[in-house]
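REVIEWER CHECKLIST
Item 1: Sequence provided? yes
Item 2: Single chain? yes
Item 3: Sequence as submitted:
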Amino acid sequence: MSKTHLEPMGDYLLVADVQQESTIGEISLPDNQRQQEMCFGYVVAVGPECIALREKDQICYGPYAG
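Item 4: Structure as written out by the authors:
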């Protein structure tokens, strides 16, 4: 099985999402509250023009970010 090499163009990033907790302590969060939270992930690949981030950096972004 061959491995695919991905390299984003320009200043784009490829991000792997990190699973968020669906509970706080023993209280379960409703679905609509989970959708409005910020998302967290790790940078997997960085485009050649992106100078601010590197691979394996942890980032926070909005739930509807492109």
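Item 5: Key structural point noted by reviewer: The helical segments are 31-36.
Item 6: Recommendation: ____
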